[in-house]
Every structure is written in C-alpha cells, then in structure tokens.
Amino acid sequence: MKKEINVKPGFSQPTERIKKLKAAILDTTPRIEVERARLITESYKKTEALPTVLRHAKGFEKILSELPVVIRDNELIVGTATIDSRSAQIFPEFGPQGLKDEFDTVSTRSADPFAISEEVKTELKDIFKYWEGKTTSEYASSLMDEDTRKAYDAGVFTVGNYHQGGVGHLAVNYEKILQKGIRGVISEIIAAIKNADQTDPSWIEKEQFYRAALITLKAVVNFANRYAQKAKELAEYSNDAKRKAELLKISEICSHVPEYPARNFYEALQSFWFIQLVIQIEASGHSISPGRFDQYMIPFYENDDTLTQEEAQELLDCLFVKFNDLNKLRDIVTATAFAGYQLWQNVNCGGQTKDGKDATNAISYMEIESMAHVMMAMPSLSIRVWNGTPNAFLLKACELSRLGGGQPAFYNDEEIITAKVNRGETLEDARNYAIVGCVEPASQGKENSWCDAALFNLPKVLEIAMNNGRLNGKDFGPKTGEFKDFKSFDEFLKAYVEQMKFCVSLLVRADNAVDYAHRKYGQLAFVSTLVDDCISKGETIDHGGAHYNFTGPQGIGSANIGNALMVVKKLVFDSKTLSMKQLKEAMDHNFGRSESAVPAAKADKDEAYDAIAQAVKKVLGEDESLDLDNLKLNHDDTTKSLDDNSNVYAKIHEQVMNVDKYGNDLNEVDELTRIGSRVYCEELENYKTPRGGIFNAGLYPVSGNVLFGSYIGATPDGRYDKETIADGVSPTRGTDTNGPTAAANSVAKLDHFIASNGTLYNMKFSPSAVAGDGGLRRFAALIRGFFDKKGGHVQFNVIDRQTLLDAQAHPEQHKDLIVRVAGYSAQFIALDKSVQDDIIARTEFDNF
Amino acid sequence: MGNIDYDKKACVFNIQRYSIHDGPGIRTIVFIKGCPLRCKWCFNPESQDPRPTKDFGSMMSVADVYKQIKKDEVIYRRSGGGITFSGGEALTQPDFVEELIKVCNANGWTTAVETEGYISERTITRIIPKLDYVLLDIKAIPEDVHRRGTGVSNHRILKNALLINQLAKNVVVRVPVIPTFNYSKKQINYICEFSKYLNNVNTLHLLPYMTVGRKKYKKLGRKYEMGDIAPLSEDDLLPLKEIVEEHGFNCVLGG
Question: What is the mean pLDDT of residues A606-630?
C-alpha cells in the first residue's frame, strides 16, 4: 500500500520523548571507556599465531560478547558502544589517538573534553604498551620514503586521516541485512565456500576471510540477542506499564533483527542501527554513512500497517538522536579544530533510482522533518537533486536550510552520475551513488573509495614552482626555472604543471604506504561482508575486495591558484606593469606587511592561529610528522623585520588585488582557476591504488585550508604569508563581490566532472534574504540554476546575528555577505553603520 | 518586434545582479542615469545628472548591457526573474529601454521598470505596455507636500499613474516613507485613497527611510537637507501597514 505524501509548510514539534532523549545526550559529559581496548587487547594476546583477519575478527567477537549492554531511558531504538551516552571507546590497534600525552588533561580541556578515571588511565597506559610497534599507524610510517616524508612534513599534503586511524568512509549495503538478515549473509558466504576452487592457491587466504566473516556475523547476532535479553530483564523490573510494554517490544525486535529479515518499519530501523553501530565498534574509521536511507527503508514503511505516520516519525527521530550516542576521542588539537564530537554519518535522500526514475519518497520528507526535530550535530543530511526532483521536495529542503543549522547540503545528480560513469562505473551503479562523509559520492554497497585519503595543498605546489623546485629553501622538485627568469606566462604555467606532476607522485607514494598498512594490519571482516564483491572474491575491503576501488585525495586552494596565475599573466606578461623580479621581491617581503603592520593583538591572534593550525595539522598529520616549533619559528622570523621598502610592496599588493579575481563571473580568471585545479585532477588519474583502483581527485577542504595556509609564504594572488587558503572550490574569502549568482557561475565554470571525488562550495545568506515564500523559491532557483550549469555541490550558511556583528568588526572578511536593506539588497559591509545596526536588530526578528 | 539596435547608448551607472525585491524572481537591475526629481532623501544623488561623470556612470550600448545581463540567464529561467530598469529615472531614456526590452523578449526574460512617473505621456504609451511589471512610486498626494519633498509638482505623476494603471500588465505602488515628509497616517491614507482609483493595483510597498546617501552629498558639494534624521525600521512602519491593509491592499514592508 503506497502511503500518501502530504507536503505542508513548516515543521511540526518533536514529541516529549525526543526532547528528553536529546537532552539526555546533551547533558552528559562524555568519558573515555576502556572496555573495547581491554577486550581486543586480551584477544590479540591470545591469537598471535593467527593471520590478521582472524585476529581482528576474534577481537570483534570478544568485544561484542562482553561489551556492557545498555538500554537508556525513553529509548525505542537501542544499542550503544559505551555505558554512558556520547562516550568513547579506544581503538589501540590503529594507534593511541593522541592519548599518550593527554591522560591528565583530556578531561579539563576546553574543546570536546572527555572525563577519564584513574583506573581507566592506568589500564590504558598498560594496554598501549602492548601495542607499541604493532599499529597500522606505525607500520605505515615505516613504509614512507624520505622524499615523501619531506613533502608530508612540509605540508605539500597530508595523509594523516587514515595514517592515524581506521579508514571508514563507506556507505555499505544495509539493504541486504534488512531484506535477508544476517542469516542471509551467512548463506551467501556458505554458498561462496561451496563454489570455491579449493585447489587454487588463493583459497587459503579466502578461507581465512570466510572464517573470520562468519565469526563476526555470528558475533553481531549474539550482540543483538544480548539486547533482547537485557530489555526483557528491564521489563520485568519496570513499574511503568507503558515502558514495560515498550521494553518487551524492544526485546522481541532484538531477538529477531538483524538475524532475520525485518518485518516492519520499526524492525528495519533497529536492524539498521545495529549494523551502523557495530561497524563503528569494529574499527575507528569515521564517516560510516547510511547513504540512501530513504531507498532501502521505504518498502518497510509503505508495507507497515501497524504504525501511524506520527509513530513512524517518532521512531525515525529516535534514530536520528541515536546517531549522536556515538563518539570518538581525538587529541586536543584535533578536537579544537573539529569541536562538537563529529563522526560524519551522512544520511541521503532524493535523487534517482537505479533505473533513472525520481527516487524521492515519503521517507525522504521524513528525514528532513527529523532533522528539523532533532537539530543536533549528527547525522549530516545530503539532498540529491536532479531535473526530475519535485519542487515541493527541494523547497522543503530549503526550508530546513533556512533554519540555520547549515543542513542539508545539496548535490547535483546531473553532474555526479556522469562523473562516476566516466570513472568506469555502470550507469546503474552511478545512479545509486551515496554521499559519504563530507561530499564524496560512492556507489552504495559497492565502493571502497578511500575518499578522504589526503589533503593536497595546491598553492604550495605553485610556491615550489616559483622557487625553481625548492621546498622551503631546499632543493626538492625538478629544476623548472627561477621565477624571475620566466619569459612568458606559458613557461610559468608549464613549471607549475611539472612541479604538480612531481608532488602528485609523492602523494601517491604516501597514500599507497598507508593503504598497504591497512591491507596488512587493518583487515576488517564484518564490514567487508556488506560491500560487494568481498564475499564472492573472498577478500576484505582492505585487500581490494570491493567492486569499485579508489583513492580520493582532495586538492585545496583552487581559487588561490587561479588568482595567482591571473596576476602573473595580467601584471607581468600582458600589461607589463610589474616584472617577475618585482613581484617575487614583493612576495618575499610579504607585500610589505610586517609586524608593525599587524598591531598589538598579534600575540593573541598568533596563539589562536597556531592552535588552529596545529589542530588541523593533527587531524591530518601524524604526531611525529609535526614540526610545530619550526613552523612557529619561521612564522616569527617572517613577521619580525620591518622592511624599509614596505610601502613599495604594499603598493604592489594593491595592484595585485585590483586584478580580476575568481568568483565574479569573469571568464579569463575563471578559466585559469579551472586549468590550475584540473591539472591536479588529471595527473592523479594516472595512478593506481594497491587495491586495484585508480586515484580519484576531489576539490574540497574539510578544514585543511587553515593549516595549509600556514605552510605557504605570500602568493601572487595577494595572499599574505601564512594566510588561510580558499576552502573547496569557493572563491577566496571576500573577493567575490558581484553577488551570489556571479560567484556561483564562476564556481560552475570549474570542471566538476573530473573532480569526481567531490567538490564543495559554501555560500552565505542572511536569513532575511531567503525569508518568506518568495525567499524560499529564490533559494531553490539558485540551487537549480547552479546545477543547470553543472556545479556539483552547494551548502548554505544562513547567517545569524553573531556573524553580522562579526562582519561589522571585521568587514574585510565579509565582503561577500549579501543582506536585504529596504527596497533592494546590498553588500552588508558597504552599508552605513546605522543601517547595519538596523539590519542586525531585524535579523534577530527574522531568525526562526 | 522589429530589429534590435544594439548600438543604442545610454549612461548606465550600475548593473546589479541578484536583485530580489524589484519584481518577481531573481533579477538584474540596470540603473540608468538621469532623474528629473530632486528628492531631498535621494540615496543616489549622483544618479540625478544624466551625463557620466569621472567616476560615476559610463555610456553603454545595448550590446554592452546585453553581455552583462545574460550572465544570469539560467537563474531568470529557474526563478521566473528577469531584468528591472531603474535609475535615476529609467524612462528618461525610452529609446534605450525599448531596445533592451526587445532583447529581453527575444530571450524570454521578464521585464520590469521602477519609475517615479514624471515622464511624458508619449513615453508611457510607448513603453509601459511592453513591460511585464511596473513599480510605480507615489510619494505624496498634496501638491505642496510633494513639491517640498521632490522639487516638482505631482500633477503630472498622478495623471500618469492613471494612464500607467490602464496600460500596464502588473502594477505595484511603492511609497518611500520619509520622516518630515510623508511619515504619517494622514499622508499614507491619502496615497491609499488615491490608489483605489488604480484598479490594477492591489499591492503597496512601504520602503523605510534610509540614510545611506548622506555621505554622498558632501562629496558632491551639496547640502543633505535631511540632516540627522534617524533611519526608519520596518517596525516603525507597522502602524502604516495597518492603514494600507484597512484599505484593502496587500502591504509589503521594504518590498
């Protein structure tokens, strides 16, 4: 029976239960729990003679059979990794997560504190001793050659994400569990074993994988049964008749799923959650993304006559809150950069079905409603948009965006599907892409895209090209000529391309080292059973078992490259206003900006700046690759001397800033930005991954643009020494001054198709600019227009009062902020203070 | 439709993309220099003189403007938007506007004009029927009040308003609400009463007084006659909105 979709404006209120569940999570101070680390270590100590895949499976089995089983008050969807809500287990097999140095400070730090008891400290210290020299992290380090290390340390790129922890970044085949149950998967494995040629030499390893997979699958069933038992016990003790009934129902459901196929919507949600949870207990990789949730959930909703729409919505809300029950410990610096306990569990909705029809369904709308009800850090919501997306659905998504939480993000099927087909996926698989993590599209249940494999610093490569291959003053890349000696723009561009080739080759070596470490020590059997074709091939995803394999490192700073190339072309070669020598000199003197130019607040600012720089560095780079003292030292040096010629250099800076900038719909500079970022993407295509796929570039930043800026001196685009570089494919902050349509047009001129691991474009709006029905329609039209021009992704900040205040205090950083004034819209910072004040007052009113 | 004269020129002082309050959808406004009125509160005083000055306005051909406005063509299509002619007073350059209207029609973009109505009957009969939307300024009904605020009598404007009402496909009346001029229930009441004679009008926009022009007067060597009067907020206009609505009109604040 097909259920009707009733589209209404606005959002309903969440139920009391949802409010309580949410409050319970927000009120808890997370703590570090030791059980997982203890159990896996005990298991590993007993399995030293076994191959990794079996050792990890046995560890997982032990964890799931002994991890405390906890059902929280008011919960309808159950299952947790920790005794306390939002607490974190430790994954010592991937590395110590920065904890070694932070045992005594982790509970009092300002960002994402975790309480830790003395007993846990003592026990973890002991556990870490066992793991010394045995982690994927240490093994990967040992595989990197000297040149690769140099580039990594100097911030040409970082592969820290998978170097420090698990890989994650998957949208697995949840549908299989919902439809067939774990028993179905077990049957699949048994069939594969029966069909295998046991005389083939590869059989030995295959058999180990199958054995490991069966252990893990049974462990998950056992885990769910422990919940069934627990719920039954709690029901016995409950005096509240209503809760008692709920607990008995939970018990019944957990004894059925995920072992058997789900029979209704409630069971499907619970089955999904067990899978989502145990994948994140198996390993520490984040961005375990539900993906196309509306597609695999819809049959269970439509065929369910036991629930009202309101009850179904509440259950979904329960799940959306539950995503926030999970947590991950990060070291102080990382936590500072990514405060808010984020795991990037990305839920999608809308788009196209495998056979190319509109996929929007009742669950798609319910997901949006749940986001509005829950408004928490997780999950992330991704809206897939194509020409056939119902406008009512897009408007609903815009309505959510307008609430100001920065959710959802919008993706363009018309671009992404083509891009994935170009990477060798079938049309059907490409249409079935899910957004994973931040912005990365991966064919659901079939792809191990390693889509956050590295951050790559595009302007750093330009810097190397400007210095005849020298990296921070030392010989490094090929000799492509001194900056001052280039006789034509094309010569300079060619040098950039040459250095790009060299740096990309090093990036590939670094990623392959990390890849190999996971292949050797990170073999994950359970999650592999949910990614095609691991079972038929008899291999884990780490071994290349997935149907599609990629390594997806993302380039950052496209706008800086385009703007820099434009300045060199215009000022040096076209108008001959400057010589290469003059430009180089001005950059070497930081365009005349010195310590005196940055007044009193500098010390604090530097401190804050360094904290962020370190933070991001930590997220991305492993501890030992940190050379912060050196970084700090360089920083001080460059800002120390007040140069006599600073006026001359400041003048050059003015000229540089007057050259057309990317983000204003000006063809020449937009084209150079396209060329500058394409070079990176094209070069990567030439390389293969150890898992049998190819490298697949993205152009998005996470938050690496802040860190990467700190590694680069002044650049020809007018960027000062150590200044942040542009995020994703967005224009450099404050240089897109012709309004949102012009900026979006520029962004759409890049080749999003070849950046097939995803692009990211941030836009800002004041709430009043998108207020009312007209505002909502214009909002949707902007998205459609950008996607007509083949942009890949866009997300919105609907600006709040605080930002406007900040814009008043720091106008130079908010040049692109458009607000509504009276009979027209205007650039906020261009307005008189009194008008600004007026708008700030008004915004509060506009803020829903 | 006839051939388009792409070489026709006028002095344009701004082309603003992503305009969202000057007609339906997302629009681009072409600001044309020259205005016969001298409103004391004008926040673009440098746009009154029809000639280009050193740093304000330049002679642009229809082709030049076309090149700029077509950049957002996809957005017009998706939002039902198009081009709005404003000024100054755009209709002081009817030949230029007419050619651009032809360009817009050929591209399927909607057209709108913001006018204060102080133009010849001939221009109105020629241009207004070709536009999709007219945003008509009516600032005050009593002649002496109008003359004091804008430097001209409103007889011509009110007469033209009736004609525009007949000829235009869609008309909205816009009222800049200015303290010491028409920021009173009485004045707004008059405007509403008058607007009832415009049977095509069902919406009034009330635009609160702003002081963004203040500094520009000094630069032009002119006195800013509004002095230190504080800007109005949309909240200040709420009582006036009530009046407009009592008269049976939709009222948009800041529209």
Answer: 49
Supply the DSSP string of A580-647, one letter for each residue.
HHHHHHHHHTGGG--GGGS-TTHHHHHHHHHHHHHHHHHHHS-GGG--HHHHHHHHHHHHHPPPTTHH
Taking chain B, what is the end-to-end CA distance rounded to the nearest angstrom? 32
Q: Is residue A469 part of a domain?
A: no
* CA A249 to centroid of chain Cα atoms: 36
Residue bearing tokens 């020409």: A387
d(CA A430, CA A175): 17
Confidence grade of residue A9 (pLDDT, cut at 50, 70, 90): confident
Please tell me which residue of chain B has the smallest CA distance to A777.
Answer: B79
Q: Identify the segments of chain B with pLDDT beneath 50.
A: none
- List, for residues A149-201, the tens digit of each pLDDT value: 999 999 999 888 898 889 999 999 999 999 999 999 999 999 999 999 999 99
Residues of A within 8 A of B233 (CB-CB) are 838, 841-842
Alpha-carbon distance B21 to nearest alpha carbon in chain A (angstroms): 6
A14's CB contacts (< 8 A; 6+ apart) are: A22, A317, A373, A374
Residue B188 within a domain:
yes
Total number of domains in chain A: 1
For chain A, give the number of residues.
848
Best of B17, B172, B205, B209 to mutate (most A CBs within 10 Å, chain A): B17
Q: Do B18 and A841 touch (CB under 8 A)?
A: no
Say whether A785 and B77 touch across the interface (CB within 8 A): yes
- How far apart CA A550 and CA A685 sit, in angstroms, is 10
B212 with A824: Cβ contact below 8 A: no
Is position A490 within any domain?
no
Write out chain A residues lying below 8 Å of B71, CB-based. 665, 741-742, 745
Residues of chain B neighbouring A774 (CB-CB closer than 8 A): 20
| A823 to B207: CB separation less than 8 angstroms, yes or no | yes
Could you list the residue range(s) of the whole structural domain that residue A69 is in? 31-133+182-283
Q: What is the pTM assigned to this prediction? A: 0.89
Predicted complex ipTM exceeds 0.90: no
Residue numbers in B near A785 (CB within 8 A): 26, 72, 74-75, 77-79
The C-alpha atoms of residue B69 and residue B66 are separated, in whole angstroms, by: 5
Residue spans of alpha helices (H) in A238-264: 241-256
State whether residue B15 sits within 8 Å of chain A by CB: no
- Secondary structure (3-state) at A492: helix
> Does the beta-carbon distance from B79 to A785 stay under 8 Å?
yes
Instruction: Report if residue B4 sits inside a domain.
Output: no
Q: What is the pLDDT of residue A701?
A: 74
Determine the Cα–Cα distance for residues A801 and A578; give it in Å rounded to an integer: 43
Which CATH number fits the domain that encloses residue B196?
Answer: 3.20.20.70
What's the pLDDT tens digit per position in A388-418? 999 999 999 999 988 876 789 999 999 999 9
CB nearest to B74's CB, from A778, A788, A823: A788
Residue A65 lies in a domain: yes
Residue A290, domain member (yes or no): no
A822:B79 CB<8 A: no
* In chain A, % of residues over pLDDT 90: 73
DSSP code string of B49-86 = SSS-BTTB-EEEEHHHHHHHHGGGHHHHHHHT-EEEEE
| Number of domains comprising chain B | 1
Rounded distance between C-alpha atoms, residue A440 and residue A420, angstroms: 11
A834 touches chain B (CB under 8 A): yes
Span A543-569, average pLDDT: 97
- Which domain covers residue B115, as residue numbers? 9-253
B143's enclosing H/E stretch is helix B143-150
Partners of residue A554 on adjacent β-strands: A455, A698
CB A40 within 8 A of CB A93: yes
Strand partners, A448: A549
